Amino acid sequence: MSRNDSKYFSTTKKGEIPELKEELNSQYKDKRKDAVKKVIAAMTVGKDVSSLFTDVVNCMQTENLELKKLVYLYLINYAKSQPDLAILAVNTFVKDSQDPNPLIRALAVRTMGCIRVDKITEYLCDPLQRCLKDDDPYVRKTAAICVAKLYDINAELVEDRGFLDSLKDLISDNNPMVVANAVAALAEIQDNSSRPIFELTSTTLTKLLTALNECTEWGQVFILDALSRYKAADAREAENIVERVTPRLQHANCAVVLSSVKMILQQMELITSTDVVRNLCKKMAPPLVTLLSAEPEIQYVALRNINLIVQRRPTILAHEIKVFFCKYNDPIYVKMEKLEIMIKLASDRNIDQVLLEFKEYATEVDVDFVRKAVRAIGRCAIKLERAAERCISVLLELIKIKVNYVVQEAIIVIKDIFRRYPNTYESIIATLCENLDTLDEPEAKASMIWIIGEYAERIDNADELLESFLENFPEEPAQVQLQLLTATVKLFLKKPTEGPQQMIQVVLNNATAETDNPDLRDRAYIYWRLLSTDPEAAKDVVLAEKPVITDDSNQLDPSLLDELLVNIATLSSVYHKPPDAFVTRTHSLAQKTEDGDYPEGDEIGYSESHANPANGAASPPSSSYSVPASVAPASPPPSALVPDLLGDLMGMDDSVVPLDQTATPAGPALPIVLPASTGQGLQISAQLTRQDGQIFYSMLFENSTQVPLDGFMIQFNKNTFGLAAAGPLQVPQLQPGTSTRTLLPMVLFQNMSQGPPNSLLQVAVKNNQQPMWYFNDKFSFHVLFTEDGKMERSTFLETWRSLPDSNEVSKDFPDIVVGGVDVTLDLLAASNVFFIAKRKNANQDVFYFSAKIPRGTPLLVELTTVVGNPGVKCAIKTPSPEMSAFFFEAIETLLRS
Amino acid sequence: MPVAASAIYFLNLRGDVLINRLYRDDVGGNMVDAFRTHIMQTKELGTCPVRQIGGCSFFYMRISNVYIVIVVSNNANVACAFKFVVEAVALFRSYFGGAFDEDAIRNNFVLIYELLDEIMDFGYPQNLSPEILKLYITQEGVRSPFSSKPSDRPVPNATLQVTGAVGWRREGLVYKKNEVFLDIVESVNLLMSSKGSVLRCDVTGKILMKCFLSGMPDLKLGLNDKIGLEKEAQLKSRPAKSGKSIELDDVTFHQCVNLTRFNSEKTVSFVPPDGEFELMKYRITEGVNLPFKVLPTIKELGRSRIEVNVKVKSVFGAKMFALGVVVKIPVPKQTAKTNFTVTSGRAKYNASIDSLVWKIRKFPGQTESTLSAEVELISTTTEKKSWTRPPIQMEFQVPMFTASGLRVRFLKVWEKSGYNTVEWVRYITKAGSYEIRC
Question: Which stretches does UniProt call biased (Acidic residues) (chain A) (predicted)?
Fold first, then answer.
C-alpha cells in the first residue's frame, strides 16, 4: 500500500530550479503535477524555491483537488516573501470560495486565513462573510476558525466587519462541530482581548452542554475548556453542571477526561453538600488512574496534574497509592513524578508498603532516581510522626549497603529528621559517624558536620571528627565552610577544652583573613566578637533551641494552586507555573516575528513603523525568564543583631580614608540614611549621583549633638560593582546645630564582592567623638549608565540578534503611565538611556533604547505601552542578564519621577 | 486555551526534518534548531517529554525511528497535543497500511501534507477518524499510473459526515453477510515481591470490534459486570441472578458510545464505525485470576557463583493452555558461563539483556515447570557494588481465558432493515508488565 513519493526528493544533474520551471509550464497535466510535487519536496527539505512563485501560482487554476492543495500549501509557505505576487492568487481564491464543491470552498477560506499578507486579508472579508453563512456545516466550521485567524492578523478589521457577531450566532448552530469550533475561536479571541467579547451566560451554558454530547472528542475539549471559566451562580447550578459533565469522565480521550476533571473541580468549590463532593471524588478517581495506562508522555502530563489535584483534594486518590508504584521499565520522568505523588499519598495506613517500595527503588541503577527515593523516605519520616522510626530503620539499612551516593543522601535527610524530632533518634549517630570518609558531596558533608556540631556533647570524639574536616578548610565549598565554622564554635562552647580552643583559633583565622566570602567572614567576625566579649551571650545565640521544621511535601502556595487548577491539562499545570510566567509575549508582538526562512525580511526592518529588532533573528524574541516582582534586598549584615559588641569591627581595616576640611555648597534634598535618633544626634543623608560622567556620593551631615564633631572618615564594604571612595571624605569640623554637604568622588571595580549581585551599599562612617556608624544605602542602578551608551540602529540590531534569547528578560509595570513621549524620552536621555527607534503596534507604542554600564556591557531595552494609559512592559536583552533586576528598578524609578 | 500546536515537526533520529507544518505564526520556522541543539544533542533527550526553551515549549514523542515534535508559544493544552499526535500516527498507519517510520513518511509526504492540513486547523484538532477522512482524501497507497479517473471527484456526502453527529460512520454500507467479531483482550499487570506477596495487580482489558454491518445499525452490549447487572435487574424488577459478576474499576469508551446513556442506564449502546476499532477499555483490580505463579530462588554463592531456581506454575483450567511463554531471569553483567536444566521448553543466556531467557511454546493448565541454573561470574576486583537485582519478567498468551472473569452476555444488533447478524466472540489474556522481584 505504500506510495513512492521519495522519488520526488532525488535531484537531477541539470540545474534544479530552471528544470522545475520548465516542467511547471509543461502542457501536460501530469507533468505539471509531478513538478509541483518536486517543488514541495524541495521545500520540505529546506531548499528555497520561492523564485518559482509565479510558475506555481499558474498551476493553481486546476480541477485537480490534489494539485490545488499542493499549490495552496506552497502559497502558505511563500506568500509572505512575495507579497506582491501573492495578489495573483486572490482571484482564484475568491472564485474557489464560491465553488459548488464544499470541500473546495472550505479549502479556499482555510488557506486564505493562513496567508498573512495584509493585501490578501482585505480580499478575505467577503468570502469569509459568505462562508460563515454557508449551507454546508463543513464550510461553516472552517470559517469559524478563520475568524480567529483573521483576528490574529487584524483585530480591528474583525470587529469592524461584524465577524464577532456572526461567530456568536454560530454558537446556536445546529451542527455540533460548528458550535465547537466557534467556541474555540471565541475563547481565543477573548484571551487576546481586554474587552468582554465572549461572555458565558446561563443560556450559552445550556446550549454548549447540549452540544457537548454530540460533538467530536476534540470539540468536547474546546467546549469544556471554554466552560471552565464559567462561574456558577450557586451550589445548585454547579451541581447541575457537574451532573452533565461527569459522563465525559468515561471518554477514551485523555484530553476530554482531564478537561472534565478541571471543570468538575472548579464547580466543586461551590458545592456545599459533603455527600455530593464525596461522591464526585469517588467518580473522578478511576478515570485518573486509567490515564496511567496511556502512553508514557500522556502519563507524565497526567501525573503532573494529579500532583496538583491531590494537593487540593487528597481524598480522591487516598486509596489508590498502589497504582503509583513504579514499574521497572517506566521512563525516568514517569518514575520521578510517581515518587512525588507517593510521598503525598503516604499515610500511617500505607506507610509500610510504601517504605518497602522506596527501599526497592533505592537499589535500582539510575542514580537520580535512587537519590530521590532515599529523600522520599526522609520526607515521609518528617510528614508522618508515627512512622518516623520505621523510616529511620530503613535509612539505616540503606546506609549499610555502603553505596556512596545512597549514604550521602541518607545523611542529608537524617539531618532533617533530627530537626523535626529533636532528642529522639540521636542513638543512630554512631552509625552515621562510621561513614565519614565516604562523604564527598558538599550537601552531605555540611549535613554531617551540622550533626556533629549539634550533638558534640554526645559524640566522644567529636573534636577528632571535626578536625579531620578542618584540614581542608580553605578548599571546601562555602556551605561546608559555614557549617564547619558553626560546628566548631558549638563544639568549643560545649567542651571548652584545649583541643577545641586551638581548633577555633584556626577556623576563625581562616574564615576572617583568608576568605573572599562575605557571609563566611561576617559570621566568623560575629562569633569572634561574641566569644571574646561575652561567652554566655555566645551560648545563648549559638546554642539556642531551633524551631522544629515541618513537612514541605505539600509545597505549593494555595493561591498558586488555585490558579494552576484552573489550568489543568495545559502547559501551566505541567510546569507548575502560572501561564504568564512562561508565556512572555502577547500575540500582537509575536506576529511581527519573521519566519527564519525569509532573510530578505531583514532589509525592511528599520523604519519608524517597523523597527522590531528581532526581525529575522535566530528565533522569536521571547524570553524564558520571569522576573521576581521585587529584588529581595540583601540580608542585612549580621552585625545588625548585636551592634554593641562589634565596636571597631571595620576599624580593623587599615585603609580607612582620613577626612579633610573643605565644605561644598548646598544642593537638592537627599534621602536620610542615618537618622539622628540612631546616630545619637548625627544625621546623615546621602545618595549616589552621576555628574559629568563621574559618580559621586553626595552626602549631607547634620550635627544636632552638643559637641563639635570632627575627623570624619568613610569606608565602603565590598559590593557587587566594587564601588569605593576615590579620595578622602572632605568634611570640616561640624559645630553643634550646623550642617555640611560634600560630594565624594567614587570609583568602580575596586572592592568587588562575590556572590549574587545586589544594589546595596554598606557604609561605615566614623568621627573622633562618636562610635562607628553603619548604614545601608540602596542605590539606583541608573547612576552607573555611561554617557557613551548611545548606539547606532544597525549596531543595536546586530547586538540584539547576536545575543541568545535566554538573555532576554521582561517585566510588567501595570500601574506606570507614560504621559508625554518627548518628556519621557528627555528624562531617560538625561540618565543616559538613549532612544533608538519607535514603532506602532496596534494601539501600542514600542520604544527601543540602549544604555551601557561600565566595562562596556550594553543593555538593549524595549518598552511597550499605550501612551497615556497605565501599563508599561519592559524587556531587556544584555550579555549579563543577572543585572536586569537592577535595571527594572532603575527604569521604574525613572519612569515614576 | 485548547490550542494544541503552533507547529508540528517530524524528524528522523539525526534531527533532519522529514516533514513539518506551521499552523500558527507565533513560533518561528527555525524553532526546530533549538530542539536539536537543546534536546536532541544533549543528555536531556528522553528525560522529560515537555520542555521549555526560550519562549517556546516543546512536546515530543518518539515513534519507531521518528521524533514527532510539537512547538507552542502559549499555554497550550498538552494533553490534547499528545493525544493528537497519538491519533495522527494511528491515522497515518491506517493510510499507509501499518508501518509508520522514516521511509513511510518520505514515501507519502504529499498525502501527509494533505492530512495535516485537514486534521488540524490553526492549532485546533479537527476530525481524525480514518473512516471519514478516507472518503475524500483518497490518495490510495498505490495507484496505477493508468488509472482513468483522477481522485478529485467530489464526494457528495463527505462534508456532512465529517461534521455529522455520527462522525465516524458513513451511510449506505451494504454487506452480503452481516458479521460482528468481538475480541476481549486482557493484559495482566503484576508486581510480586520476592516473598510471593502481590504488591500490585491489575488487569487492563479492551474490547476490539470488527464490524461488517449494513446500514446504520444500533448495537447494545451486555457484560457480566456488577453494576450493569444490578441496573438491569432493577429495571426488570427482579432479583439479580446469582451468577458470577465482576466489578469494573473504570471503563472508557470509543467516541461512538453514548456516554449519557451509559451514565443513566448503564448500558453500552452505540452506532459502530465500519471495520475495526477499539470499543472500550476497562480496568479491574479486585478478584484477578493470575494465570501463572512464579517461585524464584536466587542464591549468591560467594563472589563468583549464583544458583538460580525458578518454578513456574500454571493455575488456569487443565483443558486450557498458554502459548508463547517467555520467562526472563536477570543475571549480573559479568556473567561468564551458565549451565541449566529445564523440565520443559528451552533456555539460553542472552548477554545483550543480561538475562536467561526461558521459552516454552505451549504450557498446559494446572502443571508446573522448573528451571535450575548455575551462573559463573568473572571475578572482578573493582566491582564493589552489589548486584541490583532487576525483576523477573514474563510474557505469555492464554486463549479463551480472562484474568478478570469478564464475559460477554449478549450483543444485540438492531437495524431498520431487520437483517440477521452473526456474532463471534474470542477471549485472550496476555502478560502486561508481569514482574516478579527476586
Answer: 596-605
* Residue numbers of chain B with a pLDDT score lower than 50: 141-155
Please tell me the distance in Å from B249's CA to the nearest CA on chain A: 6
- Cβ pair A255:B31 closer than 8 A: no
Same domain, A127 and A183: yes
CATH number of the domain at A752, please.
2.60.40.1150
User: What integer pLDDT is reported at residue A642 of this predicted model?
Assistant: 39
Assembly ipTM: 0.84
Predicted local confidence at residue A432, as pLDDT: 87
In a domain, A394, yes or no: no
Q: Answer whether A187 touches B (CB < 8 Å).
A: yes
**Identity of the residue in A246, A248, A583 whose CB atom sits nearest the CB atom of B75:** A583
Among A221, A248, A286, select the one facing B259 at the smallest CB separation. A248
Q: Is there a single domain that holds both residue A767 and residue A813?
A: no
- Of A238, A268, A298, the position where a domain reaches its end is A268
**Number of domains, chain A:** 6
Q: Chain B residues with CB inside 8 Å of A226's CB? A: 2
pLDDT in tens, A285-326: 999 999 999 999 999 999 999 999 999 999 999 998 999 999
Give the C-alpha distances (Å, rounded to integers) separating A309 from A279, A565, A580.
16, 7, 21
Kindly determine whether residue A252 and residue B255, on different chains, have CB atoms separated by under 8 Å: yes
User: Is any Cβ of chain B less than 8 angstroms from the Cβ of A810?
Assistant: no
What domains are there in chain B, each with its CATH number? 7-132 (3.30.450.60), 179-288+403-432 (2.60.40.1170), 292-379+387-399 (2.60.40.1170)
Where residue A134 sits, what CATH number does that domain have?
A: 1.25.10.10
Chain B residues in contact with A175 by the CB 8 A cut-off are: 163-164
Least CA distance to B159: which residue of chain A? A138
Q: Which amino acid is at A464?
A: E
pLDDT for the residue numbered A11 = 61
> Strand, coil or helix: what is B429?
strand
Q: How far apart, in whole angstroms, are the C-alpha atoms of residue A812 and residue A805?
A: 18
pLDDT for A553: 61
Domain coverage including residue A204: 200-268
A63 touches chain B (CB under 8 A): yes
- Closest partner residue to A570 (CB to CB) among B19, B77, B389 is B77
Residue reference for cell 459486570: B225
Q: Rounded to an integer, what distance in angstroms lies between the CA atom of residue A131 and that of residue A102?
A: 10
A228 touches chain B (CB under 8 A): no
Residues A602, A381: Cα–Cα separation, whole Å: 60
Same domain for A801 and A856, yes or no, is: yes
- Rounded to whole angstroms, how far apart are CA atoms A516 and B360? 70
Nearest residue of chain B to residue A366 (CA atoms)? B388
Q: How many helices and strands, by DSSP H and E, does chain A display? A: 36, 14
Does residue A4 sit in the same domain as residue A97? no
Query: B125–A152: do the CB atoms touch at under 8 Å?
Result: no
Q: Which residues of chain A have pLDDT under 70?
A: 1-3, 11-15, 553-554, 584-668, 755
pLDDT of A840 reads 79
**Residues A811, A878 within the same domain:** yes
From A247, A268, A289, the end of a domain falls on: A268
Say if residue A739 is in the same domain as residue A809: no
**A570 interfacial to chain B (CB closer than 8 Å):** yes
Comparing CB atoms, the residue among B159, B393, B437 nearest residue A136 is B159
**CA dist A33 to A103, A108, A109, A785, Å?**
20, 19, 23, 62
A659 located within any domain: yes
CA dist., res. A507 & res. A476, Å (int): 12
Position B237 scores a pLDDT of 65
Minimum CA–CA partner of A226 in chain B: B1
- Residue A890 belongs to a domain: yes
Sign, CA torsion B340/B345/B348/B354: negative
**In this structure, what C-alpha cell is assigned to residue B312?**
513456574
Task: Please judge whether B26 and A37 are an interchain contact, meaning their C-beta atoms are less than 8 angstroms apart.
Answer: no
